[in-house]
Amino acid sequence: MTDLDTLDPLITAETWKNAGRDVAVATVIETWGSAPRQAGSHLVIDGEGNFEGSVSGGCVEGAVIAEALDVIASGQPKMLEFGVADETAWRVGLSCGGRIKVYLERLG
Amino acid sequence: MDVQALKALNAARQARRAAILVTDLGDGDGRVILEGDKVDGLLGESVHAALRTGKSSTLEAEGRSYFLNVHLPPPRIVVIGAVHISQALARMAPVAGYDLTIIDPRTAFATGERFEGVDLVADWPEDVLKKRPLDAYTALAAVTHDPKIDDYAISEALRTGCFYVGALGSRKTHAKRVERLKEMGRSGEEIARIAAPIGLDIGASTPAEIALATLAQIVQAFRRRDLVSDLVTGE
Known about the structure:
A: alpha+beta; five-stranded antiparallel sheet; 2 helices; B: alpha/beta; five-stranded parallel sheet; 9 strands
């Protein structure tokens, strides 16, 4: 394999875990309409908010990372949903107009 | 998911084995199923379908909710010819997620210095492909311009059902190649699958641009392939 392995979030997650870091794995479970990352895509986050991979085109990663710290602390998996950007939810909206469901879990 | 499941999944992916991670969305329990593993019931049917389509999706079974994340082996590219185009292609392919191997018996071309960090084999395709056969997850790009080196590999790629077969050369060169491939026993239908001149028509001029056009054409061939079920061995 190549040094591009470093861009593979699941390899990154294993490497981080082996190094003793807390890790959360976010997975796109379902998409509706226009969504930039297909079901099965991963974002992995460590206990300090470092991340690798993506679940959208950068629109909702910030919110997922914030939730990941909770999931790492509690150990309880969470299902997150993000929809079209509107005025009340602009910070976590998908500007592309799609909706996505993201499963967030702690790597045990 | 526990780290053991993740390790098993990563090991399968690195060994180019099709695998599915089944996550119980209720408790987060993760289980890795490898292609060829026997799985009963509704889950078994869904696993089978997922391996065929390569699509990840949720499944409701026995009052529980599961997510099936499918990991098919990444397609790889075999390039015949350690030429200037191949140097550019060797850099681009891994960025797009493709493994790449270059084969060229001409040791003046196939040097480690010109292809640092690349899987490069300085031997005849006839010999290399016997040990490392082509398959339906492989794209073949023949770019030496030399029939002695290209022809056998092109014929093998057509015979083994490579999802992409591209050959460098003008239309005139290709017309002669078609005649030779017919003499080698390839059918008109098989020969029609060859992308020649190689690469999407983006007006590519430099070796790097031709490499880019070729890589784009390979991605197009893979994403638009309609024989997903045939790509899964043992199906």
